[in-house]
Amino acid sequence: MEIAPNFLTDIIDQDIAEGFSAQIHTRFPPEPNGYLHIGSAKAIFINYFIAKRYNGLFNLRYDDTNPVKEDTEYVESIEEDLRWLGAIPDGIYYGSDYFEQCYQYAEKLIMDGKAYVCDLSADQMREYRGTLTQPGRESPYRNRTPEENLDLFRRMRAGEFPDGSRTLRAKIDMASPNLNMRDPAIYRIVRAHHHRQGDQWCIYPLYDYAHPIQDAIEGITHSLCSLEFENHRPLYEWVVDNIGFDPKPKQREFARLNITHTVMSKRYLRELVETGRVDGWDDPRMPTLCGLRRRGYSPTAIFNFVQRAGIAKTNSLVDQRLLEYCVREELNASAPRRMAVTDPLKVVLTNYPADKVEYFEVANNPVDPDAGTRQVAFSGTLYIERGDFAQVPPPKFQRLKPGGEVRLMGAYLIRCDQVVTDEAGNVTELRCSADLETGNGMPADGRKVRGTIHWVSAAHAVDARVMLYDNLFTLEDVNAVPEGTNYLDYLNPHSLQELKDCKLEASLAGAQPGERFQFVRMGYFCKDTRHGNTFNRIVTLKDSFKL
């Protein structure tokens, strides 16, 4: 796959036309405080494929500068997701490995009179910062001498002061119209065990300070990030300029990916997991990459979706049906067909020998002749979908009904001769006769039979559980909930339907975890990777969505 030309490639093309000659170098810098989601896939897609477009390099760099929320579990899951997507990084780095360099650069800023130690509390800093319409006020500690600031900063590192009691702030402009430039904090005191550095540090650099340093050290040429960082770009450039990096990385922003009927916030996703509202980070209803993988989505479908959703600089809400369209398009061409009955109704063929078994040759994929065929067992006792029979059929019903005929897919015509019910009137069995002369052909007498239904042989059926998934939220834009409500108020109570007594054709007994199929007339399904004998519905067969 290649990335289509877009405004970011236009920027790089212009840079090259103006004489930029360095090898293009991009990075994906996730914080390891949760699992990646499909919004992350957009950032991966952009940075990875832009690097490849220009024969450049692509880094994975963990932004692990906040020890309170980060964990090795997330570090491992992020690399696993990238490798599953096929976005293999040219190098894997950790922001925490640059802590000493970040510290030394901070001392340089102090001695240059461009950073100072501030004793204001977090609440006081917010009060001093001002508003969008009012300038901020200078901290009473802003004019400490470089020597005093250096002494205090070194004592911060040595652990002399309590958590949160002091920060190191960049000395920029308290009257700047950009609030991010009003003397932002660049170091804070936090005593927390770091997943990689242990207890070596009790002061940690903030993202806006550490990130441009990390980019510059690694030789990143184009730091491509989502639009919420646009207002942070002046601070990014201030750090690069005042430390004196050359060459200088260039930050450019793109619109993040928002999808209908789901959330992308790691905080919200973590809450769903920790409160048990979903079955873990890899619940197939989640927008996480591990959830999409478990549900049966492929890297190709995800990247096709990102490409079709577009790379622009204006935020928008993308219909999740576009994602379903992309996976459906792929699976229609590639998925083997199998028969599965999810709500079984027994059919006994009264004129078929009780001990007879025959095998019909059935195409694995009608749209792919190279997919070959398989043999499907047929016997005198079958299962059909309960919904394919109606005791009192509605108008134009073309499936099985008392006295009516249907085609068993790939096999005989059958006629319903008797309906067996229990004491409550529920249909428990159909007794039918088969036209054994028909096979795959039409009746010799020329009668027309319009309906075709699928089936499985009862003697050969595989018992399984089938999980049907729907949108996790009923609200289209979960990021804009009505005032006075919470996103949890819109959880879809019908987002999961579990079908326990399903009957599948015998070939599915050997299905491997993650293997994908079309259950004919039912949808596309994937063998679950966590639970045996379980198949997850990836997507339905059809939808009204059009490109």
Automatic annotation (TrEMBL):
InterPro entries assigned to the protein according to its UniProt record, in alphabetical order: Gln-tRNA-synth, Gln/Glu-tRNA_Ligase, Glu/Gln-tRNA-synth, Glu/Gln-tRNA-synth_Ib_cat-dom, Glu/Gln-tRNA-synth_Ib_codon-bd, Rbsml_bL25/Gln-tRNA_synth_N, Ribosomal_bL25/Gln-tRNA_synth, Rossmann-like_a/b/a_fold
GO molecular function, one term: ATP binding
Glutamyl/glutaminyl-tRNA synthetase class Ib catalytic domain ranges (all copies): 23-332
Keyword S-adenosyl-L-methionine found: no
Top enzyme category: ligase
Keyword Aminoacyl-tRNA synthetase recorded: yes
GO process terms (BP): glutaminyl-tRNA aminoacylation
Database matches in Pfam families: tRNA-synt_1c, tRNA-synt_1c_C, tRNA-synt_1c_C2
Sequence ranges assigned to domain Glutamyl/glutaminyl-tRNA synthetase class Ib anti-codon binding in this UniProt record: 335-434
Keywords: Aminoacyl-tRNA synthetase, ATP-binding, Cytoplasm, Ligase, Nucleotide-binding, Protein biosynthesis
E.C. no: 6.1.1.18
Sequence ranges assigned to domain tRNA synthetases class I (E and Q) anti-codon binding in this UniProt record: 452-528
GO cellular component: cytosol
SUPFAM superfamilies registered for this protein in UniProt: Nucleotidylyl transferase, Ribosomal protein L25-like
Gene3D superfamilies: HUPs (3.40.50.620), Ribosomal Protein L25, Chain P (2.40.240.10)
Family: Belongs to the class-I aminoacyl-tRNA synthetase family.
PANTHER family: GLUTAMATE--TRNA LIGASE (PTHR43097:SF5), GLUTAMINE-TRNA LIGASE (PTHR43097)
Name listed for the protein in its UniProt record: Glutamine--tRNA ligase
